[in-house]
Design a protein that fits this description.
The structure is a homodimer. By secondary structure, the first copy, chain A, is mainly alpha-helical. Helix content of chain A is 48%, strand content 11%. The N and C termini of chain A lie far apart (46 Å). The structure holds a DNA duplex. Chains A, B: It holds the Pfam family HTH_5.
Chain lengths: 127, 127
DNA sequence: AGGTTGCATCAACGAATGTCAATACAGGCC
DNA sequence: GGCCTGTATTGACATTCGTTGATGCAACCT
């Protein structure tokens, strides 16, 4: 279940120029758009924040489904999209399925969007 | 033309908790989803990066339209969505219309997505 | 005034998306 | 085995989205 056809953001994207650095080429724009589209739904944003803010790191689907006024298949569908975007992963343990956040893609997006210095760069520059 | 019905991200959202801090409430999730949806299209991402990466700060529509294999109304439509998301603004000067980036919303999104320390927090902590 | 150029809006179309009921699958329990 | 519970998948539907040609509007130029 953990293996999807994701790999949405490739290896070579680890060192991504931010939005204000240079115009995006078509390929990278398509990659990024896929992830942003996954974030472009309030239900998925709430699901992601539920998962990412969990200190233990894992959230059971049985906990998320009743938190919304939506059917169980709908929640399952949204979780699948978050997985395909590389934002979360999951594992079945017995009857239940647990989800956790993958911070890498989130941090890549944050770095891409930020128009200011990154933490590391700032520390070096102001030292 | 600069006045839209935007105000997508309200004043009270200036100090936004990041995704890994706490579960999002419905209202804020809807606000953020609107902006992420605006970023969820490769054409809009390329338009935004063209605008944001321009050193002079402004880009004429007459420069952007021929950069895509799309009709002029389509580009105009995407630029309108970027404006409504609060990501860019524009002004007519004579025959031409110029667009520029509004970094505030971008930085808010970056802060929301980042699972690591922000620049300011890191500087303070490591001083 | 009339003509031209740059950009926005309108109306319409096919494609993608969000949702649900029904169904299928996986694992525990009797 | 059979039953039950939790989750994923399927099929269908209404809505939204991306795109275009046609049209409208604003500003410049004779």
């Amino acid at each position: 279940m953990s293996k999807q056809e994701l790999e949405v953001i490739g290896q070579d994207a680890a060192c991504c120029p931010e939005v204000s650095a240079a115009p995006l080429d078509e390929r990278r724009a398509a990659e990024l758009a896929k992830v942003f589209k996954a974030l472009g739904d309030p239900v998925r944003l709430r699901l992601l924040s539920m998962i990412a803010s969990r200190r233990g790191g894992e959230v059971c689907v049985c906990e998320m489904t009743p938190a919304f006024d939506l059917s169980q298949p709908t929640i399952s569908h949204h979780l699948k999209l978050l997985r395909q975007a590389g934002l979360v992963d999951c594992e079945r343990r017995g009857t239940w399925v647990y989800y956790w956040a993958l911070p890498d893609v989130l941090d890549q997006l944050a770095a891409f969007l930020s128009t200011r210095q990154t933490a590391a760069a700032t520390v070096g520059a102001t030292a």
